[in-house]
Amino acid sequence: MEVEELTDIFYTSDKKGQVCRVKLNGQGFTLQRETTNNRSREQLIGLEDIVGSRCIVVKKDRRGCSMLCSSAAQNDGNRSDSGDDTKKKYNAITFQHNDASAYLYVFAYILNKKHLRNIIRRERTVLKLRFRSFDTFGDNMREAERWYHTVRAFKGRSLGCNDIDERRILVLLNPKSGSGKAREIFNRQVVPVLNEAEQPYDLHVTKHANYAREFVRVKVLDNYSGIVAVGGDGLFFEILNGLLMRADWLDARNILLGIVPCGSGNGLARSIAHVCGEPYEPKPILGATLTMLSGKSMAMDVVRVQQQNQILYSFLSVGWGLISDIDIESERLRSLGYQRFTIWTLHRLISLRTYRGKVSYLPKENVYMESDTISLAEPLPLKHSRSCNTCLDTMNSGCFQSTDCIEASKYYDVISLQNSISQSLKSRCDSWFSPASCRSTYHSVSESIYHSVDGGSDAESHLQHSNLSVHLCGPTGSAPTLNEPVPASWVVEEGEFVMVHAAYQTHLGSDCFFVPQAKFNDGIIYVVIIRSGISRSQLLNFLMGMSSGTHVPVTNNEFVKMVPVTALRIEPYDNEGILTVDGERIEFGPLQAELLPSMVRVMAPK
Ligand SMILES: Nc1ncnc2c1ncn2[C@@H]1O[C@H](COP(=O)(O)OP(=O)(O)OP(=O)(O)O)[C@@H](O)[C@H]1O
């Protein structure tokens, strides 16, 4: 059914009391203001920048101070309500006032360019519409609700459905990520925006390493539109592995995955923003939260990593040598945040190590290194894998279902807008667009659910005692197994290496622009090989160039090269060293990595 465009006349709150024609359609809100010389000025608040809207009523508290309360418009089917009925609906929030006006607040995050420093970022903007054409509050509120529902309908249409997806988002938060502020960041910066968008979510705080992986592996996911990691790449890695190790991974892989970057590296969040042309700094959390709400997604390649005793699924990188050493050994400086990498890089440059071994790879045919000539990969026909170890098969794989499964109850949010409200009242409430609103902040109370599983519960002990290295299910590729020799089509290099680092995203960390040409589903693993013999000054240049993406020479040379491949095998000759997958240390020994094109979907900005 067509959604009807709405238009109405409003008066601005400034002294001039200008007339403003407001139009709401599939484009968003068009604000047409008449200027003094009989010309009109038009401004568009684009639908894609709007996260949500709210019908608001003014109430007087017991001390007689004016306040605004909000209530999500409930049911458009009640349009024949009398004014009294409507008042009853708002009695639930101790409604008592003499003003018959109703308000619609529209929350948008608009791209803004700071001219001085040329920084582009999104700014919060609240469009406030006061409805007072009717004598009764009920009628005015019904009109505000009509606009509210129309905003939702247009937003739904823009995503190809009738209304906004009301399914919940499953949020997993690692309180130990980065410098340990994930919980605070989520409450202060993410929750207010989720509330504006009326996005329901269930929050689960991880209790220990591997918690998220097992949680996602067994959780009933039917009621969720997406899973979001509030943490670092390590937490996302756990979620990805939990998802692809599910018995129903073939369906589960379609759930959207997202990340709110609270870790110390944050390569994935930075790569998503980069590839989609969204600003990242200075507000990475806001950008990631808006990405959670956009309803957009893109396919992402996954790399299947095979070792003697385990299969892992990777989205970022596989590394051996210098960068992995820096990543893992600098853990002891974790409290310094991103600075830990810089300090340890200098340390490792001074005490440079080399590693002996063999690197084999299957070159990707016909790939030019120019980003815009890369064609996207065809997805592989998918096969199930099932491991021989059935230890986890005997567990009650639905252990979270009984203790922890959340009903998709109707979300009804109560939000206190006191700060922004007092600002709005200062500028009179019939403002339609106030620059001051860009600065308003508020705390909100959400009915979204916070969970942490009680210690000692079945689910908890199950998580702690399960053998998490066991691989049950998941996609396989077409490369030979690690025990078989590599085929003749593979290139084999043997010798002494400073580093072998394979990556498939643009950024390994927020400040590490490792593969400028990478795309999320280009079907390519980019392997950077640095051979022993490179001078320290060349290596310093390489490491310093990583922040701008200029570290790899345009043409491969004797010591440094980047090769696009679809599969890779690393066989160290020594018994000791550091191997990482997505920045997490794994068991040291031979490994094989194979690209699985477009295996999962990640949330993308608008
Ligand atoms: N509650 C927890 N206590 C301790 N460790 C945890 C907990 N939850 C998750 N972990 C582990 O912490 C490790 C690091 O987490 P995460 O990736 O979120 O942060 P980070 O390492 O600071 O960020 P990045 O990976 O971007 O550098 C992961 O390997 C994860 O398994």
Write up what this structure looks like.
Keywords: ATP-binding, Kinase, Nucleotide-binding, Transferase. This is Sphingosine kinase 1. One of its GO terms (molecular function) is kinase activity. It comes from Bactrocera dorsalis. Residues 164-309 form the DAGKc domain. With 606 residues, this protein is of the alpha+beta class. The protein has 3 domains: 6-164 and 413-439, no CATH class; 168-300 and 449-461, Rossmann fold (3-Layer(aba) Sandwich); 312-382 and 473-600, Tumour Suppressor Smad4 (Sandwich). Helix content is 24%, strand content 31%. The protein has 14 helices and 27 strands. It has a 15-stranded mixed beta sheet that branches. It has a 4-stranded antiparallel beta sheet with strand order 1-2-3-4. Strand 3 (28-34) and strand 4 form a beta hairpin. Helix 1 crosses helix 2 (137-158) and helix 9 (322-329) crosses helix 10 (339-350). The longest helix is centred in the first third of the chain and has 22 residues, at 137-158. The radius of gyration is 27 Å and the shape is elongated. The chain starts with 5 loop residues before the first strand and ends with a strand. The model is unreliable at 64-96, 368-376, 386-447 and 453-470 (pLDDT under 50). The site of adenosine-5'-triphosphate has 23 residues, from helix 5.
Features:
Rossmann fold; 606 residues; binds adenosine-5'-triphosphate; alpha+beta; 3 domains; single chain
